[in-house]
Amino acid sequence: MSDSLQASHAASANAADVRSENVERILDTAERLFRHYGYTKTNVADIAKELGMSPANIYRFFASKAEIHQALARRMLAASYDLAVISIQGAKTAADGLRAYALGQHRMTLETMLHENKVHEMVVIAIAQQWQVIEEHIERVRVLVADRIEQGIKAGEFRQQDADVASDCFMQATVALCHPQIIADCLSEGRRATPEDLVEFALRALR
């Protein structure tokens, strides 16, 4: 490779690194302001001011506040997915993996979305917009759950059944543990069934 070509590749890599760093700075600042003031009360000018730059500079990386919100949602869901992978794949049995996944998602939702009202606001808006990033996340988790159920079937832990259908059913049966709005409604209504009760009910259906 010629020196000029090497220099061009190095310059491109450096530009990509700088862009990635700026994107992360914007997202970190936006998340901090959204958490403190709320999504609806924070605008792009506020984010730019906090970063010591002009709004025009923000728009070089994100077309709108909604796009920043989507990027933050993607980052939050990536953390949720990583937790799901560790929970589902890290357990010795399929049932233990599914149990750890469902209860872990419930704890994460309570800690990061409901206990902070401003974050809850962000999540509710994201769900209302029906963003593709949320649908993609749900599908990735569904595949994880289906794979673990298939392993449980092969091991004789679960009865013979369609793992994909079972995955859909398990996730729908436990959606009340990870959907922020449903959790909030259940807490306010004082439901008697515990998260553990719900998970065990869903696991019995697989057996």
Structure description:
Residues 43-62 bind DNA. One of its GO terms (molecular function) is transcription cis-regulatory region binding. Keywords: DNA-binding, Transcription, Transcription regulation. Pfam families: TetR_C_27, TetR_N. With 207 residues, the protein is mainly α. It folds into 2 domains: 1-62, Arc Repressor Mutant, subunit A, CATH 1.10.10; 65-206, Tetracycline Repressor, domain 2 (Orthogonal Bundle). Helix content is 79%, strand content 0%. It has 10 helices and no strands. Helix 4 packs antiparallel against helix 5 (94-114) and helix 5 (94-114) packs antiparallel against helix 7. The longest helix has 35 residues, at 3-37. It is elongated and about 60 Å long.
Summarize this structure as a short list of keywords or feature phrases.
79% helix; 2 domains; 0% strand; single chain; Arc Repressor Mutant, subunit A; Tetracycline Repressor, domain 2; 207 residues; mainly alpha
